[in-house]
Amino acid sequence: MRLFYLSLSLLSLVQAGVFGLLIALTRAPAFSLLKSPSLFYHFLVGHVTFSITVWLMTFTLAYWHYKEGRKGRVAPPATLLGMLLLSLSCLLPYGEPYLNNYIPVIDSPIFYAGLFVFFLAFFFEALSRVKKLKEITSFENIPQLYAMSVALGLATLLSLIPSFFIANAEGGQKLYFERLFWIPGHLQQFLYASVMLAVWHELLKRGNGKEVSSPLLSTVNFLLLVFPSLLMAGFFTDIFSREFRLLTVMSFGLGTGVPVLIHTYYVLKNIRLSADVPSLALLSSVSVYYAGVVVAYAGMQSDLRVPAHYHGVVSAVSIAFMGLGYSILKERLGYICWERVAKLQPVVLSMGINLLVLGFYMAGRMGAPRKTYGFEYVMNTKVLIALNIAGLGSLMAVLGGLLFILYAGQSLLSIYKHAKAY
Fold first, then answer.
1. Given this model, what pLDDT does residue 422 score?
2. What whole-number distance in Å separates Cα of residue 103 and Cα of residue 52?
3. Cα–Cα distance measured from residue 151 to residue 127, given in angstroms and rounded to the nearest whole number
4. Residue 280 forms part of a structural domain
5. Positive or negative, the Cα torsion across 295, 254, 259, 190?
């Protein structure tokens, strides 16, 4: 079952990469491949949905199963069915796309059914681990973060229920979905932060054989639970109000910023600099995360600086997950296929993401809007250069993702062949 979810996460990463490449080559003036605005926005929904929601949540399930396998019969096929329905709805030219934050939507029964089934499967997996919640008070770092990820996974999906009742279409359908997913989407980011930190320490343990725990880490981990609870105020007030937006910024800044900063200190203090895959993946993840953080602290408006920020921090989670995926496969197979490729992969991917972040940030500072098809808004050569830097970074990032898919896919095939042989 561990490999089933790892296989599904690999499949979702392939889909996210295909959608992302089409979008990136559309936004890069040197290529300008896609001529249809309608398909552009459908593919944009597909890229965001599979890269931020499906890929990261399926790998979270793979990590949970790696730490503690389960034998549920409903969740695995439901997860696959949800993914197939979501992919189909993004590929078909039917339904109006709404590019709201966190979980963009295609107004189609197929998309709604896929999202519902996928979330339901994740909820069942989290629910089967409620006994692990007692380890939230543990002084061992990895078990504590594991328990917190289960709690945050449950909170993310349960928050959809009150969000459904407070959401309304005042101001348009896009704002309806913005209200629906604002609080669950923010809780989802805390979920990813908790799993990323756990995986950072898993990689550290594999890189230098040392598992780090301390009273300070155990204390700051609680910030991952305390500050998300502040978001519950959104059920009783206007989430678009200035006060609530400030509360949201504070919850992120203190609830994820402080824990990640403290964990970074412990990780970098104890890491052994070497060319093994876990160490390379860990350092690549840290570097990309802070590229996204620097963009946030440099100041953002509603332009390309926003995707510059979240491509950095979200890609940091992805790179960490890929590094752990390597370790899971190696433990199961006894070796890793194309190990040289595995060592090159996190470096190429992190370089590509950093170029993408730089290009988006530069273009955003000069007024380039986000989620916009075409180049009519380009007024000077500097914006064109910045967008092409982002396009080059996207190509490198896709290459890095492809390298992971190749060695992980080959390793999975080898494992399945060996299993059939017995």
1. 42
2. 8
3. 9
4. no
5. negative
Q: What's the CA gap between 140 and 23, in Å, rounded?
A: 43
In the predicted model, residues of the chain with pLDDT beneath 70 are 1-2, 24-37, 70-72, 300-302, 367-380, 418-422
Q: What gap in Å lies between CA 312 and CA 29, rounded to an integer?
A: 22
Give residue for tokens 């296989």: 7
Domain count across the chain: 3
Residue among 10, 11, 126, 145 at smallest CA distance from 70: 126
Neighbours of 288 (CB within 10 A): 30
Alpha carbon separation from 103 to 99, 117, 132, 179, 356 (Å, rounded): 8, 15, 28, 11, 21
Four-residue CA torsion sign, 101, 102, 104, 105: negative
Q: In which domain, by residue range, is 116 found?
A: 1-128
**CA 277 to each of CA 10, 11, 56, 103, 335: distance values in angstroms, whole numbers, following the listed order:** 18, 22, 20, 32, 13
Q: Which amino acid is at 139?
A: F
195 and 260 share one domain: yes
How far is residue 45 CA from its own chain's centroid?
Answer: 14
Are residues 22 and 99 both part of a single domain?
yes
User: Rounded to an integer, what distance in angstroms lies between the CA atom of residue 4 and that of residue 408?
Assistant: 13
Sign of CA dihedral 238, 232, 320, 300: positive
Q: Which of 231, 249, 272 is the last residue of a domain?
A: 272
CA-based nearest residue to 341, from 261, 277, 289: 277
Let me know if residue 389 belongs to a domain: yes
Length of the chain, in residues: 422
201 & 140 share domain: yes
Separation between Cα atoms, residue 321 and residue 78, nearest integer Å: 22
Rg, C-alpha atoms of the chain: 20
* 1 closest CA partner among 50, 78, 80, 72: 72
pLDDT tens-digit profile of 234-292?
A: 999 888 888 998 899 889 889 999 999 999 999 999 988 777 899 999 999 999 999 98
**Residue in the structure block whose two tokens are 């080959």:** 410
Count CA atoms within 13 Å of residue 28 on its CB side.
19
Q: What is the dihedral of CA 66, 224, 48, 8, to 10 degrees?
A: 10
Residue 97 lies in a domain: yes
Instruction: Annotate 314-377 with DSSP letters as a single string.
Output: HHHHHHHHHHHHHHHHHHHHSS-TTHHHHHHHHHHHHHHHHHHHHHHHHHHHTTPPSS--SSTT
Residue 297 in any domain: the answer is no
